[in-house]
Automatic annotation (TrEMBL):
This is Glycoside hydrolase family 28 protein. It is found in: Secreted. InterPro entries: Glyco_hydro_28, Pectin_lyas_fold, Pectin_lyase_fold/virulence. Keywords: Cell wall biogenesis/degradation, Glycoprotein, Glycosidase, Hydrolase, Secreted, Signal. Residues 1-31 form the signal peptide. GO terms for molecular function: polygalacturonase activity. One of its GO terms (biological process) is cell wall organization.
């Protein structure tokens, strides 16, 4: 979308003419009570630019142009003071040339953030529909004003009703590209109940500016979603860079760079007693991790339920299966390049790491190289009750301790069977 044509000669610009036409169309449609939307409309959203709430103007643009139209955020800052639910869109193009800045009124958000229906998490914005394209052109920014949240929760992981920035909800055949997400309130985004979504050229950075950590600022979480591709992501945060959770299938993560967070996560999963959930057919390749804790890791809850989500749970069923992680470059990672735990439980409780019935099968790592801090290449703590982790393959693992100059050759295993390419020691 040529922004210059808007800025340049507005009256001559085709966009501006369509915009004028669309106002007329909307006016006539409303007058006749036929419909409150029209196809091929362009809605340019005007910001108040005085700190007043821009939510009403944004919601009205989605109302008018959400079905077959084009919604344009200009190169300016929009202040968001209210929750937004813009779902059920179709064939909608959303161009973000500026910044959406969420307000710091934590009292408001704690009372109004919208429940996402999983892990008691909630969200400031629900966005979804069929064939949506969201383009930020490399500079369109969603700014959650997260520092106020990091200061409020002071490192507590799940704080009830602390909202994630964006929930991509019931989206199908859609694309998100060229977007920047900074200082997210909680998780940057979740992709929920969505299929066939591409997220490409995405920059995520949630960095605290004081001693309160930017914890639980996951770059993205997938839940109940199929065929999701993450390509060319840069994530710098204080938690999972990208995390695949309950019923995430056919997921690709590629050509991405992670800084400081925990790396690429599967889980946590198995949090809901007797509920059957899976993570299946995952392919990650060409990932570089700078000072992350792990490169790739898996975490399931124990087999015993202790408390309830978000902070408690356990006893879930299901499996993680057919996972390939290939070509990971690691630079000064802090802990094991590869890690499995089935010990996740209510914080402060010593969980029984052998009780989980959640299965982990067919996991393959290939060509992990670079520098780290551990003499272990992998630590795999698999649960006895699940029958252990089966068919784990690790090839071309070459991570050298930067202090020791010794290549990590340790493979710590609990209940790991049918291994290929390495030996537990
Ligand atoms: C902010 O701008 C809007 C739209 O221009 C105007 O209606 C409103 O009165 C202004 N508010 C303040 C506090 O200046
Ligand atoms: C957006 O506007 C600012 C000034 O308000 C300008 O510096 C910047 O170059 C503009 N960005 C784009 C991509 O047009
Ligand atoms: C929470 O929001 C509801 C309406 O949505 C309002 O009635 C109630 O007073 C609010 N409570 C607080 C503590 O702000
Ligand atoms: C969002 O709007 C849709 C359509 O009106 C509605 O079905 C859904 O319940 C709303 N979601 C939330 C979280 O309010
Ligand atoms: C989480 O949600 C469930 C039901 O959705 C509810 O029973 C439980 O009390 C909630 N937990 C917290 C800590 O709010
Ligand atoms: C993230 O932001 C912090 C501070 O704002 C900055 O120091 C850091 O370089 C950024 N990370 C990336 C990858 O751009
Ligand atoms: C690997 O990913 C990086 C970072 O996105 C990219 O610059 C590079 O071109 C990718 N390499 C290949 C072989 O695609
Ligand atoms: C998750 O996937 C499992 C296995 O395919 C299925 O039984 C279960 O109903 C799914 N759960 C949801 C909420 O979609
Ligand atoms: C395993 O996952 C890969 C993607 O990494 C997919 O191409 C393949 O079809 C899957 N295998 C099975 C048996 O589903
Ligand atoms: C491991 O990496 C180091 C440093 O890059 C290199 O010198 C060494 O030859 C590699 N070893 C293997 C077995 O590939
Ligand atoms: C690390 O070991 C390699 C090969 O054994 C050697 O060439 C290199 O000089 C060593 N580097 C340091 C900093 O000791
Ligand atoms: C897999 O491991 C189990 C337990 O060690 C063993 O009984 C079985 O024979 C192994 N299967 C293969 C194909 O190696």
């Amino acid at each position: 979308m040529a922004l210059s044509s808007l800025a340049g000669g507005p009256y001559r610009s085709p966009i501006f003419r369509i915009f004028l036409l669309s106002i007329l169309l909307v006016a006539s449609a409303n007058a006749n009570h036929i419909s409150n939307w029209n196809h091929n409309e362009v809605c340019v959203i005007h910001a108040t630019n005085n700190g007043s709430d821009d939510t009403p103007a944004i919601l009205s643009a989605f109302q008018r142009c959400g079905q077959g139209g084009n919604i344009i955020f200009q190169n300016t800052t929009y202040t968001i003071h209210q929750v937004m639910n813009t779902t059920g869109l179709s064939d909608c193009q959303i161009d973000i040339h500026g910044t959406l800045l969420w307000s710091t009124d934590t009292t408001y958000w704690l009372n109004h953030s919208m429940d996402v229906g999983y892990q008691n998490q909630s969200s400031a914005w629900f966005l979804g529909g069929n064939r949506i394209t969201v383009n930020g052109f490399g500079y369109g920014t969603l700014d959650g004003n997260g520092q106020v949240w990091y200061d409020l929760v002071k490192g507590q992981s799940n704080y009830p009703h602390r909202p994630m920035g964006l929930t991509i909800w019931n989206a199908k055949d859609s694309t998100f590209q060229g977007l920047r997400f900074v200082q997210s309130q909680m998780w940057t985004m979740a992709i929920l109940k969505s299929q066939n979504v591409l997220l490409e050229d995405i920059y995520v950075n949630s960095t605290t500016h004081n001693g309160n950590p930017a914890r639980n600022t996951d770059g993205a979480d997938t839940i109940f979603s199929d065929r999701i591709t993450f390509r060319k992501w840069v994530v710098d945060n204080g938690d999972d860079c990208i995390s695949l959770k309950a019923n995430s299938t056919n997921i690709i993560v590629e050509d991405s760079i992670f800084h400081r967070g925990l790396g690429l996560a599967l889980g946590s999963i198995g949090q809901y007693l007797n509920q059957f959930e899976t993570i299946e057919n995952v392919y990650a390749q060409n990932i570089t991790c700078f000072s992350t804790r792990y490169a790739a890791y898996i975490k399931t809850w124990t087999g015993q339920q202790v408390g309830y989500p978000p902070n408690g749970g356990g006893g879930g069923l299901g499996y993680i299966k057919n996972i390939t992680w290939k070509d990971f470059g690691v630079v000064e990672i802090n802990s094991y390049p590869f890690y499995i735990t089935q010990c996740t439980t209510f914080s402060g409780v010593a969980g029984d790491c052998n009780s989980s019935l959640f299965e982990i099968l067919d996991v393959s790592l290939e060509n992990f190289h670079g520098t780290g801090a551990s003499s272990y290449a992998a630590y795999m703590g698999c649960s006895a009750a699940s029958g252990g982790c089966k068919r784990i393959s690790i090839k071309d693992m070459n991570v050298t301790g930067s202090a020791t100059n010794v290549t990590a050759v340790g493979y710590r295993c609990d209940h790991v069977y049918n291994t290929t390419g390495f030996q537990c020691n």
